[in-house]
Design goal:
Blueprint (H helix, E strand, L loop, with lengths): L6 H26 L2 H22 L5 H19 L4 H8 L21 H9 L6 H11 L5 H7 L4 H17 L13 H19 L10 H17 L4 H14 L25 H15 L6 H14 L8 H14 L3 H15 L1 H14 L7 H12 L3 H14 L3 H18 L1
Length: 422
């Protein structure tokens, strides 16, 4: 969106983007079947809102205004496509959504929340899992291709191609854009869980921008995870994911200080943690574990619970955390899991043990360009009393970090290590 309009109008449009982007896009996709056209017309509607709302005032129902503007734009575009009469007929069917008087109907899917319905719709099993996740985050959550690429540890070019291929497959295979019946929901659960997980992660540890935390994304991911856990009480991973989000989010207020300065877990004021969220997360985790089918989200929640239950950083049971990371690595092998396991081993068995694992991971090249790898090496080198090497590693991490808050933290650490080395 271009920077038009006064600050209040810009703020209103930005808030509407967070709340309505997915619904506006999905309304157009559902009827036209054209993902690119839907995104183009939705973007045009938000751009028009900057000037129209400045002139006429912010509407009482921003979502309805945006949907109407995007729909009208889609009709105009389709009318100009004289060689596509079928699309013209589809354009005539584009009607403003009529909200029901009472609670929205869930149909045979059992899903009554619009956003969760849309996520399930995007996560079609005919698409590769990574394509489902990427497409849903782009189309419904409004994340940029660059943000999704960083979250999934691929290049922006690769991610753009992946999204294009997914859209092409949906079009060529005529995959229906609708909510599946309840009996078919389980085959889409993995994709939905992955979408919510990455949506929360982007909010909890933003990959770019001025702030390290995007509270709105965290709140939306938790809201949807609660709905999903209630919808599928027999799916322990849904409960595990909810627990993981709650336990992480409980620390949000303590993660940054004055001027949005990053505060690491070790140095956080645990009195500022949200203990109600911790209790809810622990309860959700206990219920999930009772099923006896531990999965990756449950295991990550166990690790988060270890941190949440420690009254002080020094009392953290790093040995248990290292063992759980080992179990997680066997279930879902990942270089990021190995990175976290190495850090836990370094805290449990000594910095040298952790550093050996990190050096092996660095030599593999699996996390090239990932700033947390040199940052973790720097921290272990600092603990080993090797400040000159730590300063160089902090400098490497600084060049790769994506947010201003992370860069300020790493720059401060590098300065401290340099001073200690001199």
């Amino acid at each position: 969106m271009t920077a038009q309009g006064s600050p209040p109008v810009q703020s209103a449009v930005s808030a509407a983007f967070q709340a309505e982007w997915g619904r506006v896009v999905a309304t157009l996709i559902a009827v036209t079947g054209d993902w690119d056209l839907a995104e183009e017309c939705a973007q045009d509607a938000f751009t028009r809102a900057l000037s129209a709302w400045e002139r006429d005032g912010v509407p009482a129902r921003p979502g309805a205004w945006l949907t109407t503007a995007a729909r009208n734009r889609a009709i105009d575009v389709l009318r100009r496509r004289a060689t596509e009469p079928a699309r013209l007929r589809e354009a005539a069917l584009l009607q403003p959504p009529q909200p029901p008087a009472g609670r929205p109907e869930a149909g045979d899917s059992g899903i009554s929340d619009d956003r969760l319905r849309l996520i399930f719709t995007c996560c079609h099993p005919a698409l590769p899992l990574e394509a489902r996740v990427a497409l849903t985050l782009r189309t419904l959550a409004g994340l940029t291709t660059a943000e999704i690429a960083r979250a999934l540890l691929v290049t922006e070019t690769t991610m753009a191609q992946r999204i294009v291929r997914a859209k092409r497959k949906i079009r060529n295979a005529a995959i229906p854009y609708r909510v599946p019946p309840a009996r078919l929901l389980p085959e889409r659960t993995a994709g939905v869980l992955a979408v919510l997980y990455l949506l929360f992660n982007e909010g909890y540890s933003a990959t770019s921008g001025a702030s390290v935390v995007r509270a709105g994304l965290c709140a939306e991911a938790i809201r949807l995870a609660r709905l999903l856990a209630g919808l599928m009480p027999g799916e322990p991973e849904a409960g595990g994911l909810l627990a993981l989000m709650l336990l992480h989010d409980s620390r949000r207020a303590a993660r940054t200080g004055a001027d949005d300065e990053l505060i690491t877990l070790e140095d956080q004021d645990r009195g500022r943690w949200d203990h109600a969220a911790i209790a809810e997360g622990q309860q959700a985790l206990a219920a999930a574990l009772r099923a006896g089918r531990p999965g990756p989200y449950q295991l990550q929640a166990v690790i988060a619970a270890c941190h949440a239950s420690a009254p002080a950083a020094a009392s953290t049971d790093w040995a248990v955390i290292a063992r759980v990371y080992g179990q997680l690595a066997r279930i879902t092998p990942s270089p990021v899991v190995e990175l976290n396991r190495a850090v836990a081993v370094g805290m449990a068995d000594g910095p040298e043990a952790g550093l050996a694992l990190l050096d092996s991971l660095a030599a593999s090249g699996a996390l090239a360009g990932y700033h947390l790898l040199p940052a973790a090496r720097a921290d272990l080198l600092r603990r080993l009393g090797r400040p000159a090497e730590a300063a160089r590693a902090y400098g490497e991490a600084l060049t790769l970090a994506g947010t201003d808050a992370e860069r300020r933290y790493l720059d401060r650490r590098r300065a401290e290590a340099s001073a200690a080395a001199s």
